[in-house]
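RECORD TYPE: protein structure
NAME: Phage head-tail adapter protein
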Amino acid sequence: MKDLFTDPVRVTRADITQDGPYGKKRDWKNPRTVFEGLACVQPDRAFEVRSPERETAQERLFVYLPAETDVDSADRVEYRGLTYEVDGDPLEWRHLSLQHVRIRAWRVEH
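PREDICTED:
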């Protein structure tokens, strides 16, 4: 699996600046890097939604990170100059030589 980790990525995290009754607000103007290195990035899917009110395009990726990588569902992933949100909880896989952390990443345009 290590030979498959050829895609440079950076995982960033932002501190919570506000925690109120309607949710948490994070300071994305000052994120910190929690991981920077090689991963295996695979396409998941991409699709567009068109309506008279708006037009959006979404892209989703699977990102396989080395085992023990510190990544959280509120983090962001930078890949090929684009920023993606981590979608859901990371999945840890520890079986023989296939040890890794898998996350889903997504971004929206427009």
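COMMENT: The mean pLDDT is 87.
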